[in-house]
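Same chain as my last thread, 72 residues:
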Amino acid sequence: MTSEQPNDPLHGITLAMILNQLVAQFGWEQMGRKIKIRCFTNNPSIESSLQFLRRTPWARKKVEEWYVRSRS
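reply #2:
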């Protein structure tokens, strides 16, 4: 078998790693403006954001896409 997802830019990167990087690079305020979800705008924390993103596929997809674009 070949290695899993060799062309996947998110391979080996956890959601927590993505969130921490985006917060460090952009901050909660800019994240809340970019992706309008309450876990980014109302008393934001890594923990609450992870909980929300893990159970909300559309929001997770937006965050992952933003992360990939920000790394290019």
